[in-house]
């Protein structure tokens, strides 16, 4: 069949997951502006009609809904709530206020700390060794067929480039290159001298012993 149908990767996830990850929470509820504490930090998995405040839940009594929380200005959700509806294996968990949580989306990390041995497969954020992703959003991206295909192509291209570099090094030097690949430029060859234009320094002629040739230095 032709294109235009639903993406196969989309069918792997519940329909409410992507709307949840793209929703903006902790804003003032436009339906209850005259009430106190009407910050929108709820999401209905059945209706998927945007962020809700606690007063909105009166219309979702028999629905599945979850509460979004904040940690360092990033949206998180408690593992005890989300794992009822979603497989979060491979996503790093954290403990905040005695509750285990996961982040909804990736967080920028300018540089890795020293000794980091494991990073998120999507955004390269440092992780504990037993995890693959830093957030739910990264798991969606990292497990998609398109992402895995591009990753394989990138690794294949890198492998071919390294093989070509090793082959050239082995041919030119007569021995294999066992150095770790890096982007540091190799040592440049010695600068050639143009003997036609180079100015010769005149010196005192010295006669070689035993009647040899006269050599100037």
Helix tally?
4
**Helical content (DSSP H or I, runs of 4+):** 10-25%
The main pleated sheet reads as: 4 strands, antiparallel
Poorly predicted runs of 5 or more residues: 1-6, 171-193, 211-217
Largest beta sheet: strand ordering = 4-5-7-6
**Main structural class:** alpha+beta
Rg over CA atoms = 32 Å
Q: In percent terms, what proportion of residues is strand?
A: 5-15%
Write down the secondary-structure element order: HEEEEEHEEHHEE
- Average pLDDT over all residues: 77
Q: Quick one: how many beta strands?
A: 9
What overall form do the CA principal axes indicate? elongated
Q: CA-to-CA gap between the ends?
A: 84 Å
Biased composition (Polar residues): 167-181
Protein name: PLATZ transcription factor family protein
InterPro entries: PLATZ
Region (Disordered): 166-206
Describe the structure.
This protein has helices at 17-22, 79-82, 136-142, 145-173; strands spanning 42-44, 51-52, 65-67, 69-71, 74-78, 94-96, 99-103, 206-207, 214-215. Helices cover 21% and strands 13% of the residues. The chain has 217 residues and is an alpha+beta fold. The chain is elongated, with a radius of gyration of 32 Å. The longest helix is centred in the last third of the chain and has 29 residues, at 145-173. It has a 4-stranded antiparallel beta sheet. It has a 3-stranded antiparallel beta sheet with strand order 2-1-3, with no helix packed on it. Strands 8-9 form a two-stranded antiparallel ribbon. Among the domains are: 12-67, Double Stranded RNA Binding Domain (2-Layer Sandwich), CATH 3.30.160; 75-108 and 117-156, no CATH class. It has 4 helices and 9 strands, in the order H-E-E-E-E-E-H-E-E-H-H-E-E. Strand 1 and strand 2 (51-52) form a beta hairpin.
